[in-house]
Amino acid sequence: MHQFRAILLDVDGTLIDSNDAHARCWCDALAEFDRPVEFERIRRLIGKGGDKLLAETVGLSDTEGLGRSISKRREQLFLRDHVPTLKPFPQSAELIRRMHDEGFKLAIATSAKRKEMNTLLEIIGIQEWIDATTSSDDAEESKPDPDIVDAAIRKLDIPASQAVMLGDTPYDVDASTQAGVATIALLSGGWSVEDLQGALAVYRDCSHLLEQFEQSPLCASP
Hints:
Elements: E1 6-9, H1 19-32, H2 39-43, H3 50-58, H4 65-82, H5 92-101, E2 105-109, H6 114-124, E3 132-134, H7 147-156, E4 163-167, H8 170-179, E5 182-186, E6 201-203, H9 206-211
Parallel strand pairs: 1-2, 1-4, 2-3, 4-5, 5-6
Helix pairs in contact: 1-4
């Protein structure tokens, strides 16, 4: 028996190389509405929900007025200009299949909106192995609040102690910790080992975790 029964999966920066694209879209959308923000500042916030990013950078809500317009424009730019160029990280699909074959329940737990999530899952090609999906549409508060992680646990109907989160940002670690879920982190999203403190283990990317699968916390005994 494994220590964990379920794995919660972040998508952006974890399974697919999209963090820079998200940051560029936010920069472009904000600039179009005369609210320019430096790329480097935006990039450090990728992994949080768009609602929190807007509030922290320009003090706007994504549900009304100018903030809502900026958020919608960012989504348009991402789906139109960037999605066609995005690539999964090497062996991300193979890793998810290995998790499935090992008997883990798998749930997506992402701050992305449902439409974007579904599009990215199609690119990665893992839908057949996923038992449940949760996105920002399923939670009142986005990461680093624990709502999305809590929602994924409820959908899988398991105790938090029997789940582990696979993510790439400190916001994944924070959200999971608040939900009572352990985290395995990847460096593929652009964060450092120091940024990801609190994770059970840190791997370079999906291929590295797959290579080390049998020695990872995923195969630890209770």
